[in-house]
Fold:
Amino acid sequence: MKPDTPLELLGGLSPAAFMKKHWQRKPLLVRQAIPGFRPSLSIADVRELVRRDEVESRLIWQDGGEWKMKPGPFARLPAMRRSGWTVLAQSTDAHDDGMAELLHRFRFVPDARLDDAMVSVASDGGGVGPHFDSYDVFLLQAHGRRRWRISAQRDLALEEGLPLKILKHFRPEQEYVLEPGDMLYLPPHVAHDGIAEGDCMTISIGFRAPTLATLARGVLETAGDQLMARIGEDAGLYGARPAPGPKLDKRYGDRGLKATSHPARLPDELVRAALEAAQRVKFDEALASRFLGQWLTEPSPAAWFEPASGELDLVRAWPLDGALVPDRCTRLIYRGSDLYINGELAELPAGSALRALADDRRLDCRGRHGRRLEPDELDMLSDWLAQGWLHFVPDA
Ligand code: SIN
Ligand code: CO
Structure:
């Protein structure tokens, strides 16, 4: 995706202009972001999807003015003619290729930030109430109409004791009725309330925004794994080559220790030794990217990979007439020559053509990148094919 090419999806803005003017700053309404949009899942498909155990779903409705929520799966849902209910299905991109393709239209934002495509199906009057989200969201109208009211209000106090987040004082400032193909982008913390007008389906393209505490803990845990792996006491959380760092294999010693009359007191020397050892850990970009690469590519809990039926040895068979395509559930991220795939680290030769597989989510075997692959890389690819992380698509 070229950052400077105007996109219909963004109302004629280029991704670069959208990121500069709107991303994390202000809402954007795009009429006919996808003209003639036909979602890959129908309302009936979503009703079917939320019957499944592996699909995270919630049903939301009001009972005598009181908000109610029930987690799925749902063997039965209310009829569409019963007004005022909504069912939400999370991570539909893990269950449906069309939804994954839709999510990928938003890859002008890095994969590290893209989260999932959630689908809501609502009957007339249904909605999840006035609330705010802590994440950016693109709300794409997929079926029927939804009336969105939004507000930049500062007062984000929530009603207490409810099963979902509902604003105490919602003061709408703008109102839009979205038709299929229309889309509303909202940055984090913009108050909003969307109410279905008739049978309605909305797709939310959501983003990952970990708290700084989560990031810090991840780096600390990776540092901890690295320390133990380096002295051979633990294979490390992910079983990968240990991240760079010190080898603290010497044991604490206290020659010259004096006899004590307070045996229960913690020795100061031991406290200082623990602190000094911790201070030898190097918090650098290599450590942080190791944590992020592995963590961000951990498959979603909804992911399922079907191992390949027959083995394909690419080293012998290369080049094939076709392309390699990551499974819709495969997560790929790289930094320098470290490629992370589904929580695992693959070390690439310098300038590897495999980074193109991650960026393009496709690698033409006889194309510019395919022709440059080395036997080690073909070995890795064979492995990923066998696990169902990649698929081979023959030329038509
Ligand atoms: C919905 O689709 O009903 C809710 C989406 C949202 O408000 O974030
Ligand atoms: Co919301």
Q: What stands out?
A: The pocket of cobalt (II) ion (ligand 2) is lined by residues 131, 133, 192 (CB under 6 Å). The chain has three domains: 8-207, 212-256+273-281, 314-394. The first helix runs from residue 15 to 21. Residues 314-394 form a domain with the Malonyl-Coenzyme A Acyl Carrier Protein; domain 2 fold (CATH 3.40.366.30).
